Structure of Cyclohexane 4+2 cyclase:
Amino acid sequence: MLAHELALAGVRTVVIERRPEIDARTVSGLIHERSVELLEQRGLMEQIRREDGEPLVWDRLHFASFWLDMSELAKTDHSVVLLQTRIQRLLSDRAAARGVHILRRHELVGLSQDEDGVTARVHSPLGEEEIRCGYLVGCDGEDSAVRELAGFAVTRSGPSWYGLLADVGSYAGPVGAGSFHEGGMFGQFGDASTMFRLMTIEIGVEAPPAEQPVTLEEVRASIERITGERPTVEEPLWLHRHGNVTILADEYRNGRVFLAGDAAHFQFHPAGHAVTIGLQDAVNLGWKLAAKLQGWAPAGLLDSYDAERRPYGRRACVYGRAQMALLDTADGPSALREVFGELLDHDVVNRHLVRAATDARYPMGQAEDLVGRRVPLVSLSTPGGEVPVAETLHAARGVLLDLSGGTEPPDVTGWKDRVDVVAAEPTPEIPASAVLVRPDGHIAWAGEAVGEGLHTALAAWFGEPAA
Ligand SMILES: Cc1cc2nc3c(=O)[nH]c(=O)nc-3n(C[C@H](O)[C@H](O)[C@H](O)COP(=O)(O)OP(=O)(O)OC[C@H]3O[C@@H](n4cnc5c(N)ncnc54)[C@H](O)[C@@H]3O)c2cc1C
C-alpha cells in the first residue's frame, strides 16, 4: 500500500521482499470498512468488484470471543471478507504497473543511515548487494528486521499463554466460537464448505520450542486438554503457534527510517482490525514522504506521522492486551469477563469497541467536528455532473472541496501543483462551506472558501505557495 501511495506521488520506490511470491495462505480474511474506504479512494475497489463481484459483508465482530452487536453499526463499521492475499496481489500489480521495483527473494540483512540517506544491505539470489535510498520504511511485520537493525526501542509484553491456530479441512469435535474451561479457551470457526479454523489458549502450559513444527497431534492434544474431549483433526492447511505477545515501537521514526503496520504495532488480533490499522499507517505516511522528497513538505509534516498514527497503534495494543486479560480463565479475569459481557448489552459499548482503533481523528487545531476525520465518501453534485468524493482522491493529491455552491470561488493559485479544487453544491454530509482534504482523505481544515484561514491551512499542510 505504501509503495502504491509513493508511486502515485511519482516517488521512485523499491520493495525488498524475502518471499519468492505472495504467500497463498489465507491468514487474514476480514478488513474493516475504513480499509475499504482507503482502497475506494484510490480506485482499487473498482477492480475488485469488477473481477470478484461485491465483497461479502461480515456484520459480526468478536472481541475476546464475545460477539459484538453490530446492528447499530452495520452501515458504517462492518467488515468485508477480502483475503489478504487478494489485496496484496492487487496492490503489488498496481504498484508494479506504476513503476515500483518489487524485488522478491531479497532479504534485508543490514542497514545504516547518515544525514543524506539510508544504505540497505540485501541478500539476493545473486549475492549480497547494497541499495541506497533517501528513506526506508520497515513494513516487515511482527519480527521486523528494520526495527531491530535501526535500533528502535519497543515496549513489549507477553507471552503468558500457549496458543495454537489451525486451519484444517476436516474436523469433528467440540464446537462454538469460544468455550472457557479451567485450563484455557477453545474456539472453532468456519465449516467444511470453507475450512475450519481452530484456536486454543492454554495458561500455565509451556509451549514447545519455536523451531519445532506444529503437528496435528499437538492441536488434538491441546483441544483435549482444554475441553476434555478428543477431537478428530485432519487435512492441515496451516498450523501456527501464537503466544500473546504485544509489541509497540516507542517511536515510529528514527531519523530516515520509519516503521508501519505490524512492524510498528503487533497485537493479539481477533478483532480483525490489524490490516486496517496497517493500511492507515501506509496512507498516512506515503504523501508525507513524497512531500519531503519533492521539497514542499512544511516543517514537522514527517514527524506528524508518529504523532498521528502511534496513538492508534498503541490503542490496538491496549485493546489486544485487554482481550487477553478477558480470555484468561483465572478467577479474577473470569469475574471481569462476566461483568464485561453485561456491558456489551449497551450499544454505546459495542460502538466504542468497534471504532476505538480504526476511527482515526487526528488533531488539526480546529474544533469543528469534521476536522481531523476522514472525508465522507459521498457523491457530489458538480457543474459537470455527479462526482464521488472518492474519485477526487484517486491521484493522492490534496483536494479543496468548495461546497459554497459557486458563490465564493477559492483562490489556491500558489498551491495548484499540489491541490485540486472541486466545486460542488452544498451537501448535508459535509456541513461546511469548504473543506481542505489531505491526500490521505482526512479533512485538514473547514471554513469559508475565501479568506486568510484557507491560505494558512494550505501553507500548514502543503507548504509555501509557488512563486
Ligand atoms: C491467523 C491470523 C488471522 C488474522 N486475521 C486477520 C483479519 O481477519 N483481519 C485483519 O485485519 N488482520 C488479521 N490478521 C493480522 C494480519 O494478518 C497482519 O496484521 C498483517 O499481515 C500485517 O501486515 P504487514 O504488512 O504489516 O506485515 P506482514 O503481513 O507480516 O508482512 C511482512 C512482510 O515482510 C517480509 N519480510 C520480513 N522480514 C523481511 C526481511 N528481513 N527482508 C525482506 N522481507 C522481509 C515478509 O516476508 C512479509 O511478506 C490475522 C493474523 C493471523 C496470524
Notes: Residues 2-152+247-355 form a domain with the FAD/NAD(P)-binding domain fold (CATH 3.50.50.60).
